[in-house]
Specification:
This protein has about 350 residues and is mostly helical. Helix content is about 75%, strand content about 0%.
Length: about 350
Amino acid sequence: MPTVAPRRRLINDPGFVRLWTAETISHFGSSFSHLAMPIVAIQLLNAGPMEIALINLADFLPFLVFGLLIGALVDRLPRRGVLIVGDLGRALLLLTLPISYALGILSIPQLVIVGLLLGTLTVFFDVAYQAYLPSLIPKEDLVEGNSKLEISRSAAGLLGPSLAGALIAAVKAPAAVVIDAISYVFSALFIFSIKPQHESVAEQNDAAAPAAHTPRASLRSDITAGLRYVFGHPALRTIGGATATSNLFGSIAGTVELLFAYNVLGLSVALIGFASTLGSAGGLLSAVLADRISKKIGVGRTIVLTIPLGGPMLVVLAFCQPGNDLLNALVIGAASLPRLHRAPCTTSTR
């Protein structure tokens, strides 16, 4: 009787481990940059609400505007190359900030442009690593592999802001940005070290799915298909509109919160990072509770009932007074409202 070879654990798969390590470093870097960019603007350039709003918008805009285009482009590009270029590009962009500061030419427009390009490369990286995974591991291991990658994403969102705040407080913003840039270089090196033989699984997956070998549609067709699916699906169309509105005003609130915490309450950067971590922890708790609540009252009712809670939670910030730093950090963290959206896997890259 023929014997079935035991499946190798993913933790022992060198190709997957290198991708996982690179993805973890990259997500921590993105989480770090999300806090570091506005802090650099406030500390070094005395940025006000309008400037911080522009920097936050530059960070968020690529996901909204370029997501469909980038998803279609990644389908046509070597994904390993996209990952490496994404990491090295972000490292170079970040290094321009401390160099400009040392030369005395750092400005708000530069921060906005760098933030926009960072966000764009982050979208490229996030789309590419999800598409690259099936070329490294067997199809039956994809669920486990994606779970491990999502653990890293959650850990970065949870711990990244606190680590960023502590590092900025310890070595000052320009040096912290240099360290962030170096982290992206290490991520690129891990991806570069993935050998061609590690990608041989792609042939097995392709053989198991011959339907995938269909004539490639045009770039415009791919983008149009993604838009048609989203706007043609009543639930996705409604959730997309609600999410966009919530994110828009949430970004405005986040801008005010940061300036309020730093300029009015006098919180240290470390405590601001701690408050952001509390908000991320609330996101993990919300994910657990949302599943239980939605099973009882339905997904639609859960969304309708929870989205409006973000507004009243911000009211408590008005009662914060300077001098109670830890309490103020706890209140700011509690006022953060996590948001979650999802799309079918068949159109996730677009």
